[in-house]
Amino acid sequence: MVGKSQCSLRFYEELNDFLPLERRKVRFGHEFQRRASIKDLIEALGVPHTEIELILVNDRSVDFSYRVRDGDRISVYPMFEALDIAPLVRVRPQPLRISRFILDVHLGKLARYLRLLGFDTLYRNDYEDAELARLASEQHRILLTRDRDLLKRAVVTHGCYVRAIDPRRQVEEVLDRLDLYRAIRPFLRCPRCNGLLAGVPKQRVWERLPLHTRHCVEVFWECGECQQVYWEGSHMPRIRQFIQELRARVPAGPSSGQFSDIAE
């Protein structure tokens, strides 16, 4: 019969959200079966492996395959997208820095916001969990979800559990955690389908425009995938204000790209 051993663990920052109150922000002892991998041990405690960027065992960086030993002192850290710790990281070959997303069924409004901000974002309200995990892996996308168990699938290498409920707070949470404020490139993607937008002559979309728009708007954009037509609408000041508030959270960066004012 396989005997049990004892180790101690300490989880840092937002990883504590997955733990019961008595185990948050403190080092605690834990019994485990001999030969347990550190990935299985951590996920058995409720923390998805996709939330983790660095694991130190006895002050040495290890990967998920490390076999926990009796007496090990384990420290577990969340993603450090704002800080390059590549020389230390061993939980995956290389931190994923390209900000491409795929979202689960619960995050439709967040998907529209991320597309509005220029991020390549896949979303459908009929994705099955297995398909979400497969696409995240094959296309090297960050999986955003409200389902903790989905993040525990072995094929998923990068993902975030979205804690906020309000869609605008969700946007701030994702941008905060992945340090993406300087990567905002608004109005480059279609909020409906994620296709790229391009300027289009008025005469080419004339028949698809409402009557009042035909005579008071001159500049239009069209989605290259779904052919949705966009122009500046009355709600544009609110959208600009929202983006301005997001950008104000960090020092001003370089220009955000070709399109600066567009809405349906």
Topology, pairings included?
Layout: E1 4-11, E2 28-33, H1 38-44, E3 52-57, E4 60-61, E5 73-78, E6 100-103, H2 108-116, E7 120-122, H3 129-138, E8 142-145, H4 148-151, E9 159-161, H5 167-178, E10 197-200, H6 202-205, H7 211-216, E11 220-223, E12 229-230, H8 236-247
Summary tags:
264 residues; alpha/beta; Ubiquitin-like (UB roll); 5-stranded mixed sheet; 4-stranded parallel sheet; 12 strands; 24% helix; 20% strand; elongated; disordered C terminus
Describe the model.
With 264 residues, the protein is an alpha/beta fold. It is 24% helix and 20% strand. The longest helix is centred in the middle third of the chain and has 12 residues, at 167-178. Among the domains are: 4-78, Beta-grasp domain (Ubiquitin-like (UB roll), Roll), CATH 3.10.20.30; 100-185. The strands form three sheets. A five-stranded mixed sheet has the order 2-1-5-3-4, with no helix packed on it. Strands 7-6-8-9 form a four-stranded parallel sheet, sandwiched between helices. The model is unreliable at 252-264 (pLDDT under 50). The protein contains eight helices and twelve strands. The chain starts with a strand and ends in a 17-residue tail after the last helix.
Uncertain runs: 252-264
> Major beta sheet, specifics?
5 strands, mixed
How would the global form be characterised? Answer: elongated
Give average pLDDT, whole number.
Answer: 87
In terms of DSSP E residues, the strand content is 15-25%
Radius of gyration: 22 Å
Q: Give the count of helical stretches.
A: 8
SS class:
alpha/beta
In helices, the fraction of residues equals 10-25%
Looking across the biggest beta sheet, what order are the strands in?
2-1-5-3-4
Terminal CA distance reads 66 Å
Order of helices and strands: EEHEEEEHEHEHEHEHHEEH
**Extended strand count:** 12
